[in-house]
Design brief:
With about 525 residues, the chain is an alpha/beta fold. It has 2 domains: about 10-65 and about 95-155 and about 370-515, FAD/NAD(P)-binding domain (3-Layer(bba) Sandwich), CATH 3.50.50.60; about 165-220 and about 265-350, FAD/NAD(P)-binding domain (3-Layer(bba) Sandwich), CATH 3.50.50.60. Helices cover about 30% and strands about 20% of the residues. It is built from 16 helices and 21 strands. The protein has helices at about 10, 30-40, 60, 95-110, 195-205, 230-240, 240-255, 260-265, 270-285, 285-295, 310-315, 370-380, 410-430, 440-455, 460, 485-490, and strands spanning about 20-25, 45-50, 115, 120-125, 130-135, 140-150, 170-175, 185-190, 210-215, 220, 305, 320, 325-330, 335, 340-345, 345-350, 365, 395, 435-440, 500, 510-515. The strands form 5 sheets. Strands 1, 2, 3, 4, 5, 6, 17 and 18 form an 8-stranded mixed sheet that branches. Strands 7-16-8-9-12 form a 5-stranded parallel sheet, with helices on one face. α2 packs parallel to α13 and α6 (about 230-240) packs across α7 (about 240-255). The longest helix has 21 residues, at about 410-430. The relative contact order is 0.13. The structure holds NADP nicotinamide-adenine-dinucleotide phosphate. One of its GO terms (molecular function) is cyclohexanone monooxygenase activity. It comes from uncultured Nocardioidaceae bacterium. It holds the Pfam family Pyr_redox_3. InterPro entries: FAD-bind_Monooxygenase_sf (IPR051209), FAD/NAD-bd_sf (IPR036188). This is Cyclohexanone monooxygenase.
């Protein structure tokens, strides 16, 4: 199937880039697609979206591993402006989400502004022209505004294990599943017991000869309250949109009530803890195995997982949960610290993503040539309102630092951020602004407030390490308040929190207005 419909420019060769665009968007997941649709809706047609893959979808295009599904309710997992009456069940499988994104893209009429198969190689801020100079695999262009919607869970992280490069069998990461490889009758090792692993393991356990699951930290796993929608519900979603809105609103607010358990008092999560412990008792009969899968940190400190078949899968005859730490990988298998070698044909790394060391940050350099990665190394990953970083004028981040969620849908946060960017663009046009960036004071206040709030969250006090934290132990990924608070705080782009350079400036610095900090 050609995912780009009948548009020939998108099916094969890549149309050349124009020399200049008003807005260049990187990435065509929920963030980039939503941004494109809303730009067009606001009458901004001078934009381009570059995407290294060959279709829209982002994480939902890339994560096709067996069992891939969303652990956020379906009703929250669509744009508010494009509800999907077609979700078949309360938690959607990956393929349905990918189909939904394809369909939204097709119907939006914006695909002509996308360049698929084009990687964003470098973006450098040019102070003289007050523009971004962008290098891509399809050539160069300039842009007034750069929007990075490259995603926080897009770059697979391979485990740093001695000898892993010497393994002679098949090796794949959960986010780069090799569907051409048949696992039937194979001996398989899965490294990791996070959100991806708990979906993969039950799905492949019945197919493989033997499955070794390497667990470093036992996760909290709650029951998955998933069910197919009834015919009556599906009928109502399709013909009575108010019903679907009502479902969505009810689920949204129910999810928001979970926030205090993460951010104020973990004891509020006692019912979730109880349900998870019952899930273990239901799924596993062996007391020793029950003990080894019982987490030793506060629930919520890491992402809470949901599954009904994870524990039964670990209890199977052909599955072994290995809790002894991995010492090394040999050409034929995995050796644990007690000296045991378990030979396998396949090594599946369900080991997560680069989240606090985003690869795209190395490709973006701001004022003075400093890369975003270097800036964040020095000062910690931060962005004012989760969107803009000082020293990087006219750069907007979708799913920027501290915008992630553990309890609800990222689509809500993404839509908040898109509206924020649109308001910034509107005000830049209205005030004849060539460039802007947050004042040091505004960004510092924002970041300090977030980090102060973090101190009492379960992510800091819960006694675990997680991908939410950077090397210094700061949570630079999650939003520590309710999502509606984030929406309220980003509802309006406040120019007064930014240093601006006017368009008419002959020498940019001459007209630079430093805001009091
Ligand atoms: P993850 O949650 O970061 O889990 C990685 C797992 O690999 C952890 O169990 C980790 O152990 C283990 N690990 C990493 N390096 C290791 C090493 N060197 N040796 C042994 N074990 C190692 O990654 P993920 O499962 O891919 O999920 C990442 C995020 O993607 C999730 O938190 C979620 O936000 C998202 N996701 C969502 C869904 C969904 O349903 N919506 C599904 C999948 C993923 P430790 O715990 O000890 O670090």
């Amino acid at each position: 199937m050609n995912p780009h419909g009948d548009d020939p420019s998108l099916a094969g060769t890549v149309a050349p880039l124009p020399p200049h665009v008003a807005v260049l968007v990187v990435g065509a997941g929920f963030g980039g697609l939503g941004m494109a649709i809303k730009l067009a809706e606001k009458g901004v047609h001078d934009f381009l979206v570059v995407e290294r893959a060959d279709e829209v979808g982002g994480t939902w295009r890339d994560n096709t591993y067996p069992g891939a599904a969303c652990d956020v309710p379906s009703q929250l997992y669509s744009f508010s402006f494009a509800l999907n009456p077609g979700w078949s069940r309360s938690f959607s499988p990956q393929a349905e989400i990918q189909d939904y994104l394809r369909e939204v893209a097709q119907e939006s009429g914006v695909l002509g502004r996308f360049r698929f198969g084009v990687s964003f190689d470098q973006g450098a801020w040019d102070e003289d022209s007050q523009r971004w100079r962008v290098r891509t695999s399809a050539g160069e262009c300039t842009a007034d505004v750069l929007v990075s919607a490259a995603g926080a869970l897009s770059e697979p992280k391979m485990p740093d294990i001695d000898g892993i490069g010497s393994f002679q069998g098949a090796v794949f990461h959960s986010a780069r599943w090799n569907h051409a490889y048949d696992l039937s009758g194979k001996r398989v090792a899965v490294i990791g017991t996070g959100a991806s692993s708990v979906q993969i393991v039950p799905e492949i356990a019945g197919q493989v000869e033997r499955l070794d699951v390497y667990q470093r930290t036992a996760p909290w796993v709650m029951p998955r309250r998933d069910r197919p929608y009834t015919r009556a519900e599906l009928f109502a979603f399709r013909h009575l949109p108010g019903v679907q809105r009502l479902y969505r609103t009810a689920i949204f607010w129910a999810r928001e009530t979970m926030v205090p358990a993460f951010t104020i008092n973990p004891k509020l999560a006692a019912p979730a803890k109880k349900a998870s412990l019952a899930n273990i008792r239901r799924g596993i009969s062996d007391p020793d195995l029950r003990e080894r899968v019982t987490p030793h940190f506060e629930i919520g400190c890491k992402r809470i997982l949901i599954s009904n078949d994870w524990y039964p899968a670990l209890d199977r005859e052909n599955v072994e949960l290995v809790t002894e730490p991995i010492a090394k990988v040999t050409p034929s298998g995995v050796v644990t610290e007690d000296g045991t070698e378990r030979e396998v044909d396949v090594l599946v790394n369900a080991t997560g993503f680069h989240t606090t060391d985003l690869p795209i940050a190395h490709r973006i350099s701001g004022r003075g040539g400093l890369t975003l990665a270097r800036q964040w190394e020095r000062e910690g990953m931060s962005a004012h309102k989760g969107a803009m970083t000082r020293g990087f004028p006219n750069l907007f981040l979708i799913v920027g630092p501290n915008t992630g969620l553990g309890h609800s849908s990222m689509v809500f946060m993404i839509e908040s951020q898109i509206a924020y960017v649109l308001d910034a663009l509107r005000q830049m046009r209205a005030r004849d602004i060539a460039s802007l960036e947050p004042t040091r004071g505004a960004q510092d206040r924002w970041t300090k407030d977030i980090q102060r709030r973090m101190e009492r969250t379960v992510w800091h006090t819960g006694g675990c390490s997680s991908w939410y934290l950077d090397a210094q132990g700061r949570n630079v990924t999650l939003w520590p308040r309710t999502t509606f608070r984030f929406r309220a705080l980003t509802a309006r782009f406040d120019v007064h929190e930014h240093d601006v350079t006017a368009h008419h400036a002959s020498r940019p610095d001459a007209d630079r207005v430093e805001q009091p900090t």
